[in-house]
Amino acid sequence: MAHSIPNKALVLVADGGKAILFRNTGHGGDVTLHEERRLTLSDFSNDGPSGSQGTEASPGDTDEATFGKKLAQTLQTMKAANGYEDLVIVADPQTLGELRKVMHKTVEASVVHTLAKDLTNHAGAEIAAALVK
């Protein structure tokens, strides 16, 4: 099923430790992604993970939860500053789940499409092709 990604939509491509923000500059159903920004956990001050992690959580799990929380906060800040109207999220299933747990309602309302795949190591053209499948 083909998906229509609006022009100027913000496209977040993330895994548990890094994220790339793209902007769609395509028109009329075309998806053309231009990279705007890259984020890693080290880009954020560390004030702990999202919610309680339990004693069985590994340091990696805690880092992923922290990154998801910080990423959600970044999306909320951008939304409040009118940084985007439409949001597309491409993330591995675990990161997508972490984001959904902590995503603000205004950000959630902006989501026009999600794709549960890890495409952080792919070129923009490959990500665009995956979005229109």
Task: Please describe the structure with a list of short key phrases separated by commas or semicolons.
five-stranded mixed beta sheet; 5 strands; alpha/beta; 133 residues
Task: Describe the model.
With 133 residues, this protein is an alpha/beta fold. It has one domain: Nucleotidyltransferase, domain 5, CATH 3.30.420. It contains four helices and five strands. A five-stranded mixed sheet has the order 3-2-1-4-5. Strand 2 (18-24) and strand 3 (33-40) form a beta hairpin. Helix 1 crosses helix 2 (93-102). The protein starts with 9 loop residues before the first strand and ends with a helix.
Radius of gyration: 14 Å
Order of helices and strands: EEEHEHHEH
The secondary-structure class comes to: alpha/beta
DSSP E strands, number: 5
**CATH fold-level assignment:** Nucleotidyltransferase, domain 5
The top level CATH class name = Alpha Beta
Tell me roughly what share of residues is in helical segments.
Answer: 25-40%
**Major pleated sheet:** 5 strands, mixed
Low-confidence runs of at least 5 consecutive residues: 49-54
Shape designation: globular
Beta-strand share of residues: 15-25%
Strand arrangement within the widest β-sheet reads 3-2-1-4-5
Describe how the helices and strands are arranged.
Blueprint: E1 10-14, E2 18-24, E3 33-40, H1 59-80, E4 87-91, H2 93-102, H3 105-110, E5 111-115, H4 124-132
Parallel strand pairs: 1-4, 4-5
Antiparallel strand pairs: 1-2, 2-3
Short description:
This protein has four helices and five strands, in the order βββαβααβα. The protein is of the alpha/beta class and 133 residues long. The protein has one domain: Nucleotidyltransferase, domain 5, CATH 3.30.420.
